[in-house]
Amino acid sequence: MSIREKHAHFAILLTLCGVVFFVGLGVRDLWNIDEGMHAAIAHNMLISGDWITPVYRGEAFLDKPPLFNWANAIAFVLFGVNEIAARIPSAVAGSGCVIVTYLLGRRIFDAKTGLLAGIVLATSLLVIVLSRVVQYDMLFTFFITLALYFFVSGVIEQRKRYFLALYVAVALAFLTKGPLAVVLTGLVIGGYLLHKDRIRLLLQMQIPLGIVIFLIIVTPWFLLMERANPGYLVYFLYQQHLANFLSGTSDYKPRHVEPFYYYVKIVVFGLLPWSLMLPQAIARAAKDHRNVRAGMVPFLLIWLAGIFLFFSAATSKLGSYLLPLTPAAALLLGHYWRDFLVQPGEKARFGILLGSGFVFGVLVLFTGYVVAEKPWTYLHFTTGIVWDDLETALVLLTALFGLAFLLTWLRRNLPAFAVFAAILPVFLLYVVFTILPGVNPYKGSREIALELDKLLAPEETFGYYHHHIIGSAVFYTRRDGVEYYHDWHLDQFLASKERVYALVQTKARSEADAFQGNYHVIKVIGNKAIVSNRPDTQETEVSK
After folding, report:
1. Of 416, 270, 297, whose CA–CA distance to 352 is shortest?
2. pTM metric for this prediction
3. pLDDT tens digits, 157-173
4. From the CB of residue 488, how many other CB atoms can be counted at a distance below 10 Å?
5. So what's the pLDDT on residue 410?
6. Residue 249 in this model has a pLDDT that exceeds 50
7. Do strands 501-505 and 528-532 pair parallel, antiparallel, or not at all (unpaired)?
8. φ and ψ at 496, to 5 degrees?
9. Which of 5, 66, 18 lies closest to 38 in space, CA to CA?
């Protein structure tokens, strides 16, 4: 392909990423608990000057390595301490992941397949969401994808420098999220080598030198962390990873326990709207390996299935864990759509019509029910969602799926692909600018935290009831709060002889049932309230 075409492809993908990942990043506040927590850790690094031990609420945060926190702290230095800066590392990582996926598609198939795969990845639900939040997963997935790109390049080009670059990428992934970096890349690469009977390739991968490179990058921080926090390595490697993966022991219970089939729904919803075609894409790839370099289609299938089965076998499960398989799915879908656009087959067309038609039909019925019956009007009180805006969002989503179905029916395949690619960006940007501002006081704590900060003396702390309220409150007040787990804990705190304040959150579905405790309500914003052991001199303020 020409240089002009390459530049055009990069321009298309970078423009798409700019719109989907960056537009409206600062519209909403940092939400509880993860966004506020990670931003507070990064900000604390800047204030304290300690870039070795991540600290949250005055205690060492031992759950994750520091690379993502370092990236956030650097973003704060460059762009100021704000919501946009906190989210920039994830948005940049998401964009990088799209570009690397394009390069992988170009390596394995051709440039047009890579372009389609990049578009598929950038417009998938899970990727869009996790590229717009303050979490580790997108940066981790970028480094995993980069590592696998270097492996594929090494296999195809037969150049050892790519294998050395592989170890650098794995080391950076390790510094982002820990041992999973080695496990996931080893699982995919090992599975491919065994499947293709290419164990001899291990000799070309310069593993001894690679281990040295890996250790040079990873070891210094872990040694410094262990010296500053004795016992860290045992906690991090055993409790945080091994115990969470397995069924746990009497001492270490795994978190986020879900059944084996949990990730089926994550794939279905996380890869929307493209998951509708994924079964066909997998079947087609498994049958047809023609015009594919070095037999790399099995590599993509192993990448997809290996990570899916690995996390399904784990006891602890979160939807974001599955993010590293999305580039493989996007490449298979890009390959599928490339063939369909060049040589449209009736079987493939029927599959797209079946999937999009099913979703369109479900959305028509669901949207009609919601508009006619208005079944969850209490959502305005519990989440801040304006009902009319929710109805409009559902109508918009239904119309987009309907248009994609119609264009496929009319055999306008390229416009149909474009509409499929536009469905979630258009829908989610509507949600970002229309619905999320009203949800802010319910999912985050910025407004009420700033009000609380005005009431507190310098260096004074505050209490909070339930940890889901605290993340952004710590970030916005720059104060460490004290968590109270039970009603009697909160009552003890409020029994102080001095005037004290606490943040509480309600799950009540009506105003009459909210904030019924042994305290005086000072101010209410959304589903949270500032409460005290003494009444305010003014009437309670309520802001919805």
Report:
1. 416
2. 0.91
3. 888 899 999 999 999 99
4. 10
5. 93
6. no
7. antiparallel
8. -60, 150
9. 66
